[in-house]
Amino acid sequence: MEIQLRSSHVALDDRIREHVERRLHFSLERFETRIQGVRVQLLDINGPRGGKHKCCRLEVQLQGAANVFVEDTDADLLTAIDRAADRAGRAVARAVERTRDRRERGAGASGRTAAIAASTPPPGTSEQE
């Protein structure tokens, strides 16, 4: 799983990079075959003025489904990362389930139609022949 990490007014040290990677792998590893990539943006909402609010924005790019966007804000950057990663895991699970349901409904409907068509005799013939 490729993770792209960007920041705005947040110092990215090795500790933060490792934390992001560890949390995302923990939350998303079971969907790894369905994920094309993850974009992470860490920001200080107040910019260079400083302040308490840090934000973690995630975009999970899925194969065969719409991208998942998650955002969380907290005074502590690591807490915002943790919550955003957890929410992303749940959102990806829902997206994968919706995709699976759509495929099953589509295959089920066409499969039933084919079965009915196969059991119905062609027009102009009788069932007793």
Structure description:
The chain is of the alpha+beta class and 129 residues long. It is built from 2 helices and 4 strands. It has helices at 14-28, 77-119, and strands at residues 2-8, 35-44, 54-62, 68-74. A 4-stranded mixed sheet has the order 1-2-3-4, with helices on one face. Helix 1 (14-28) packs parallel to helix 2. Mean pLDDT is 85; it is low at 111-116.
Strand content: 25-35%
* pLDDT averaged over residues: 85
Report the sheet with the most strands, covering strand number, pairing sense and barrel closure. Answer: 4 strands, mixed
Number of DSSP-assigned strands: 4
Given helix and strand content, the structural type is alpha+beta
The Rg value, from CA coordinates, equals: 23 Å
Primary descriptors:
single chain; 2 helices; 129 residues; elongated; alpha+beta; four-stranded mixed sheet
Short overview:
The chain has helices at residues 14-28, 77-119; strands at 2-8, 35-44, 54-62, 68-74.
Write the layout of secondary structure elements.
Layout: E1 2-8, H1 14-28, E2 35-44, E3 54-62, E4 68-74, H2 77-119
